[in-house]
Design a protein that fits this description.
920 residues; 4-stranded mixed beta sheet; 15% strand; RNA-binding; 4-stranded antiparallel beta sheet; alpha/beta
Length: 920
RNA sequence: GGGCGAAUAGCUCAGCUGGUUAGAGCACCUGCCUUACACGCAGGGUGUCGGGGGUUCGAAUCCCUCUUCGCCCA
């Protein structure tokens, strides 16, 4: 699709909407994002593989700006490596998200007045499936809108048949290795979702509650009682003891005595256990083994009964081992209502000693925010210690680095104290636990394929476990299950291990750490060498963006209004390593102006180029002899090389051979630095200086015009390449309009630039820039109207200065245009004039009769003189200090000496100037 | 309660292993429709680098301490 428009028909503002969709479709059609396993060096190919697996969003999710940030980071890396010549694979996909998705569908059912139980398990699962098929995966389509260059032919889903097989395979392996077991213990239970949760899924939040002090009378000694302090009085019906510290003198004589549990009127013993914190509350703790994990441990140590006193929905009810504990008046009452009733009863019975406000952390369900109820039950667990040890080692020895570095400490801390992982969920949506039990012989076993008869007794009445697996039990296989594991596939050989894992720090434990464990357990190799944890998008009050707060930003709306490139550039520019990105949801215009403005600027540079350079062929950059290059050419080419080198440092290295060395461990991944460097080059160097300098050359003819055209195209082309990973659409659409464009090629597949050796002479253009800047400043200082032409007399006090002055006259036309100032070699006439010193002793004198008055000029120069003198004095002080010259590195001292010479000459010059003007 | 981090311009942040006259974007002020661009151009820094102490020839940078925020874990 060569542009039919002529340059002056290109609109002055980049129209993102008109460009992006068709461009994306073209990329996809041409297979630009497709990875070829055979080309990976691991498969005998000629390209290093570079692989990222997407953190799979929930299948029901809609794109929010957090996904936008996360995906843009990945896309920048992936596009960069693709241009750098790697065989790049970005694996996209979604997560079935057990609890979350089941909740969504249950809500839909509720609107129809139904529950999942009404439908029954099979029908419910079918219902979820069809819901997911119809509405699911929209987020993957939305990712295309922001330019994500994933290989869609490899789209994965955690509940697909292929990935389900991977889940089953690892379950069986772990089961057979005795790393999965069934445990009877207190777990976190969500009474709304009606399922157990892992430790990580039960989130803490600080709450101000109450600490109730309740008196338990001593049986047979009406004068005595023990006061216990509790934050959860409703659980007292499940109390089986009161524990005190064995060395606590207050209670020592009561150990072994019995107490009367109020309300329930049960007798319970006083026991001694050093777990009790004497300083907390009254130093006496009620022990409720079935409803508190610590009490459960105490109960086990003392062989106490463990009565459950709540139904799964957290209404009060007799449960296991609790016959008769819950009075009829409380049965069926919700736990917090029951709490109020019980507190009232205790008060009326005189058992409530006091109530004090109490700050403590209450755990909530990470999916529905319901207060979690600790509950004794049978669950499946993964034994973590054997899996954690190698995962810990991998980070410690540098095979994996975590950025920002400080998160490594968090990771190590967590893995060091890791607890077993509860993987069973009492849900219907998910991978069903592949364990069957034979009712005839009680044989229990995990099967890779559904069994028809018991392997031990041949019975055929096998029953499968009712529970499903934690969603994260499928996610932790993601880096290799998406590549075909457990089969030995070409993809797996070509693309495992992957390279960088990009995600938010919140799921370091949920997901990242477990992937490392699974990768090492199954593949004996780390799943990636770099974990990049990015910040969170927040609003102007630094609040996380969320649906409930209504402070979210819809990335698709941003794409509509400003373009995907504007969204991406703005996000990347604000992406300091691990730093949160602040955006104002109330003012999208302001938030995304930087990206939008820059996209337009780029567009206009392109527009200018196309107008001036035209469509006629340009010389190949390589064919231009160095002698044909002007100072400006040399300068911009050097700036380009610097920019390329800086971008490379900002992004890379992409990988290392072996573990990360100390020096490289924190290197690269500075996406904000990459964005800023590329922006600075294109805008502040190319557009502000080189394009301006090239204008007059383009108006001319002959060889120099051709050189200018070629350099302009080359340099802009290179700039587009540097920016393409961040702003793929506008850069691609400009790139294909360049006269050097070859049909059928894509910027997305063009070579990443490499820096060239510095050309001599580039610094001569700096003198031109200095002269222009100086005149502009004088014009502003003296408020010379822009329309008014002025002249400057160039004064060269010595031979060096004369040589430099020649340079200025050589570029006199450029200076005249950019500074609106004509250069003259004649001595300045007498009278009021503005004076400026340039480097190398050069001097400009601007006779401005009627504008400059002598006194003002003296004041201005005087102020400059004072400032310079001050700095020079400090510098001289340093240089005359023997401690400095003796201890500081010699090259620094030498540099300071050079500076001293320059400053001294400058000050002397300024002084004589002031003297000439008649200053005291 | 334990651990980690941050504090630099009005706002959001760079400033790596100590050595430029402390920077960028946005905002702001002044002047400009200079034939690519007003989503732009030119000029302007508006700062006790959170407070105090220390190490050093030299501290925004290293150490101690205090204050204020934030995050993770129990």
């Amino acid at each position: 699709m060569t542009p039919p428009e002529t340059p002056d028909e290109i609109p002055p503002h980049y129209d993102a909407a008109a460009t992006e969709r068709t461009l994306y479709e073209e990329w996809e059609r041409a297979g630009v994002f497709h990875a070829d396993a055979a080309r990976s060096t691991r498969s005998g190919g000629d390209r290093d593989p570079f692989v990222i697996v997407i953190p799979p969003p929930n299948v029901t999710a809609a794109l929010h700006v957090g996904h936008g940030l996360n995906s843009t980071v990945q896309d920048v890396l992936v596009r960069w490596r693709r241009m750098a010549g790697d065989e790049v694979l970005w694996v996209p996909g979604t997560d079935h998200a057990g609890i979350a998705t089941q909740n969504v569908v249950e809500k839909l059912l509720a609107a129809e007045g139904k529950t999942r139980q009404d439908l029954g398990r099979e029908a419910f699962v079918e219902r979820v499936k069809s819901f997911v098929t119809e509405t699911g995966g929209q987020i993957l389509r939305q990712l295309r809108a922001i330019g994500a260059s994933a290989d869609w032919t490899r789209t994965a889903y955690t509940l697909s048949p292929e990935l389900s097989r991977a889940v089953r395979e690892i379950f069986v392996r772990l089961y057979d290795d005795k790393l999965i077991y069934r445990g009877h213990r207190v777990i976190h239970w969500c009474p709304r979702c009606l399922t157990s949760l892992s430790d990580e899924e039960a989130e803490h939040s600080e709450t101000t509650g109450s600490l109730w002090h309740i008196a338990y009378p001593v049986v047979g000694d009406p004068a005595r009682q023990i006061v216990v302090a509790t934050t959860r009085p409703e659980t007292m019906l499940g109390d089986v003891a009161v524990a005190v510290h064995p060395d606590d003198d207050r209670y020592r004589d009561l150990i072994g005595k019995r107490l009367l549990l109020p309300i329930a009127n049960f007798e319970i013993p006083v026991i001694a256990d050093s777990y009790v914190d004497r300083a907390f509350g009254t130093g006496a703790v009620k022990i409720t083994p079935a409803h508190d994990p610590n009490d459960f441990e105490v109960g086990k140590r003392h062989a106490l009964p463990m009565p459950v006193i709540m139904a799964p929905d957290a209404t009060m009810a007799d449960g296991a081992d609790s016959a008769g504990r819950v009075p009829a008046t409380l049965r069926g009452i919700e736990r917090f209502a029951a709490r109020r009733m019980m507190v009232a009863q205790l008060e009326s019975e005189g058992r409530l000693v006091k109530v004090e406000p109490h700050q403590h952390a209450v755990r909530h369900c990470y999916r529905c925010d319901t207060v979690v109820e600790p509950r004794l039950s049978d669950q499946w667990f993964v034994k973590m210690a054997p899996l954690a040890a190698p995962a810990l080692e991998a980070v410690k020895d540098g095979r994996i680095r975590i950025l920002p570095e400080r998160h490594e400490a968090v990771y190590i801390n967590w893995l060091t104290g890791i607890r077993d992982w509860n993987i069973s969920r009492q849900l219907w949506w998910g991978h069903r636990i592949p364990v069957w039990r034979c009712p005839d012989c009680s044989h229990e076993k995990a099967y890779r394929d559904d069994p028809t008869s018991c392997g031990q007794c041949g019975g055929t009445a096998l029953q499968q476990d009712e529970d499903v697996l934690d969603t994260w039990f499928s996610s932790w296989l993601w880096p290799f299950s998406t590549l075909g594991w457990p089969d030995d596939t070409a993809d797996q050989r070509a693309f495992y291990p992957t390279d960088v894992l990009v995600t938010a720090p919140e799921i370091l434990f949920f997901w990242v750490a477990r992937m490392i464990m699974a990768g090492l357990y199954v593949k004996k190799e780390v799943p990636f060498h770099t974990v990049y944890l990015h910040g969170t998008v927040r609003d102007m009050q630094h609040r996380k963006m969320s649906k409930s707060l209504g402070n979210g930003i819809d990335p698709l709306q941003v794409v509509d209004e400003f373009g995907a490139d504007a969204l991406r550039f703005t996000l990347m520019q604000g992406m300091g390593l691990g730093v949160d990105v602040m955006l104002d949801p109330a003012d999208l215009e302001k938030s995304f102006a930087p990206g939008r403005n820059f996209a337009t600027k780029l567009w206009n540079i392109g527009r200018f180029l196309l107008m001036q350079v035209g469509a006629e062929p340009v010389r190949a950059f390589e064919s231009i002899p160095e002698t044909a290059l002007t100072n400006a050419d040399r300068w911009i080419l050097n700036r380009l090389s610097t920019a390329i080198a800086e971008c490379d440092v900002a992004l890379g290295p992409a990988r290392t051979a072996g573990p990360w060395s100390e020096g490289l461990r924190v290197a690269g991944m500075r996406l904000d630095a990459h964005a800023e460097t590329a922006r600075r080059f294109v805008w502040n160097e190319l557009a502000d200086w080189y394009v301006e300098a090239a204008k007059s050359r383009l108006l001319g003819s002959g060889d120099d015009r051709e050189v200018a055209r070629a350099i302009l195209v080359h340099v802009f082309d290179q700039g587009l390449r540097l920016l393409h990973p961040i702003m793929p659409f506008v850069t691609e659409s400009l790139w294909r309009r360049l006269p050097t464009f070859e049909a059928g090629t894509f910027l997305a597949r063009a070579n990443w630039p490499t820096p060239a050796p510095a050309l001599s002479g580039g610094e001569r253009f700096d003198l031109i820039r200095e002269a222009i800047g100086t005149v502009r400043q004088l014009r502003a200082d003296y408020s010379i109207p822009p329309g008014q032409k002025i002249v400057a007399h160039v004064v060269s006090p010595d031979a060096t200065a004369k040589a430099r002055a020649a340079l200025l006259f050589h570029e006199a036309a450029l200076i005249a245009r950019m500074a609106r100032c004509e250069l003259l070699s004649t001595p300045a006439p007498g009278g009021a004039a503005a004076h400026a010193l340039l480097s190398h002793g050069l001097e400009l004198v601007l006779p401005l009769a009627g504008v400059v008055d002598l006194q003002k000029e003296i004041t201005r120069l005087g102020a400059e003189h004072v400032a310079l003198s001050k700095q020079l004095d400090a510098l001289r002080g340093r240089l005359s200090n023997e401690k400095f010259t003796g201890k500081a590195p010699p090259e620094l001292v030498e540099a300071e000496r050079t500076k001293e010479r320059e400053w001294t000459a400058r000050r002397d010059q300024m002084q004589s100037k002031l003297h000439d003007l008649g200053a005291a």
